[in-house]
Amino acid sequence: MDYLSAIQSVMNPxxxxxxxxxxxxxxxxxxxxGLTSVMAISLITPxxxxxxxxxxxxxxxxxYNSAIFSGxxxxxxxxxxxxxxxxxxxxxxxxxxxxxxxxxxxxxxxxYSVIGGxxxxxxxxxxxxxxxxxxxxxxxxxxxxxxxxxxxxxxxxSHASLAKGLVTGFVGMLLATVGLDPLLGSKRFVGNNISLMxxxxxxxxxxxxxxxxEMLFQIFEHKKEDxxxxxxxxxxxxxxxxxxxxxxxxxxxxxLIGSVxxxxxxxxxxxxxxxxxxxxxxxxxRVSKHPEEFGxxxxxGLATTCASNNASxxxxxxxxxxxxxPGDGNTAxxxxxxxxxxxxxxxxxxxNSAPFxxxxxxxxxxxxxxxxxxxxxxxxxxxxxxxxxxxxxxxxVLLICCVGAYSMxxxxxxxxxxxxxxxxxxxxxxxxxxxxxxxxxxxxGDMCETNLRRTLMLSNGSYLQLFTGPISIGxxxxxxxxxxxxxxxxxxxxxKNKKVEG
Amino acid sequence: xxxxxxxxxxxxxxxxxxMLGLTACGSAGADSASFPSDTVNIVCHSxxxxxxxxxxxxxxxxxxxxxxWSVTVENKTGGSGSVGMQYVQNSKPDGYTIGTAPVExxxxxxxxxxxxxxxxxxxxxxxxxxxxALYVPKDAxxxxxxxxxxxxxxxxxxxxxxxxxxxxxxxIAACVLADKADISLNHVPYDGATGALTALLGNEVDxxxxxxxxxxxxxxxxxxxxxxxxxxxxxxxxxDVPTAKEQGYDINVVCWVGFLAPKDVDEATLATLQDxxxxxxxxxxxxxxxxARGCDSTYYNAEEFKKMADSDFTYYSELIxxxxxxxx
Lengths: 502, 328
Description:
The structure holds two protein chains of two kinds. Chain A is mainly α. Chain A has helices at 2-10, 13-31, 37-48, 53-78, 87-136, 140-152, 154-157, 162-175, 202-220, 222-226, 235-239, 245-267, 273-287, 299-323, 329-340, 349-352, 354-386, 390-409, 412-430, 436-458, 470-501; strands spanning 179-180, 187-188. Chain B contains twelve helices and ten strands. The N and C termini of chain B lie far apart (53 Å). Chain B has two domains: 39-129 and 256-323, CATH 3.40.190.150; 130-254, D-Maltodextrin-Binding Protein, domain 2, CATH 3.40.190.
């Protein structure tokens, strides 16, 4: 019954307008690298207090969903993830777009983001309370193994050369140690620069490595890239935004994998769309029939990452609504907004404010449905934008990168960090060192270290603590599988060959 | 353009008054009469999304609505708040740049993070505070602070207490508890109060010391018990929970977020800013903002605020160095 009245109150012009406004703001913020959804939501929150709570929350959820989706737009168009959640989207999305099929890649991004968002909303509606309890089973040992599992993906994201991948990966982990020691509070590699005390800011490094690095590469290696395959694609394909039936068939399973992993990873506090998309990409690669295409413009890889980062929203909301635990900045602001609307967040929210939570589910669905046409329309517009002379695009991207890196924390250290990362990105690209492992190291190094040391602190130094608990064991098995996969699949291959021969 | 010309004329007219022995510099003297004639910038020490960010934006909003000031909020984050506070400290002392003053102002010097203490800035006033509290799981074998302390005495170094990060105010609070009750605890730092509470809900630790406003909803829902509030008075969010003082332990650790300006802002401007903040803190809008967040909106004027910050500074500095809370 709650749902009926919820649908009624959401389906009125004012509320729909609020969602639409939110989605539009989210698209702008999400597309611009450095401007994050957290920033947009916290800027808008005080304004929403003047509206009624439903309208206010409609706007905020619109921003949240649309910012995560549109982070993929810049990942695809200019190789710069608009938000960290779209890092994995650059792996395949940008390659597809360089082949002249930007419209198609943007179309896939829209459709699969919406699918991921809708599936995760369904998960949220059906199993919010029980799923959220999963978050509480995640203690320090589990976080350690999850981080290690993520780090084991260095292997699959360094397609060119494993040795080169490990080099960049460990550089990333080393950079992650800069800042205050998480358990002792002493300074590490900080010197006298207090801006470095919180560690090297992740977003400027990301913008530098991907965006600036790629643009520098295009500028300096101009001649080699001149005959890029843009012309190979005929005009029809260039203009096409919607995938064909066969293409949809190939992307269905990766899309589902991405959604499921997105929800699960989203539930765990402290992890979100960035990690879920990377894991989904890795898993989809392993089960795909065309693993060699991954990292070189695979539509399956694109679909799974797009679905996964949007699916993580439903997961994050699960923990936030059922337990009052914000897993990231976005849900922290959303919970703050809820308290301002007079609701008590925490385990009592679901039962005490059930009608409002129902409205929230409906808003999630509507927001995703609004993203679909807007996204597809913007894809058409993007094709036109990308046909501007590449010199202009390069300059514009460099400018946007600078502004983005500065606006994160409004300090110049970040801009310097971005340029250093950009120059590194350029050389990495030139000598074929993969970026994926480095990002993994930066993203997970700290989580891995802190949780290992915290586990030992909790157990008074006993390593046994790491191997108890079903989730830990499960993750250990996954890690062993991930590392041993090449050998295992080789064995299978041999057996198959034998059978064929026999 | 015209505005600027007008200001120049005004400054000229004031010059005569200056000669009578006012030491304030010309332009500042002219400005203080009409302060604020421009946009006031609030520098927030924490990221978008945190409680202090929400506070800055609320104050900016009320200043705009009630006094017609034009106010912007800018986040400058890092170094436990020292990046933002030092930015304000070093900005032009014309009153147009003010900032948030978190409790870390009384701690970061002792922690060795930055050379900053309550004397390096002018404090304007404080209207948001909340006390520390001790939380344990609902099925824990102790009902009062006394039970907990005697359990810890019987089992030294066994009880694991989660806090919101090394050198954070709740870490200090747990250390004060151990110090005053003469017990030995195993302090485990987590990522913020949320991280500590999540660990306690997941039974990874035996207790957690975080703020009243961060944990009360879990006490309401019955997932956790609160054994004591480390404040002068009981918390409005948990009126049934006695303070540590009522239970015979003089533990008082309060987290506050006030506002500061650079040193050397002239008296008149400073007074305008202080009055403006007082007006904000006394509005119903602001009070309901604090109430919704589970915080105390008691107003401390500039003097009271300075006194509180100073006494915290003295006590925490002593504690941090004697207990060796942070490895150097």
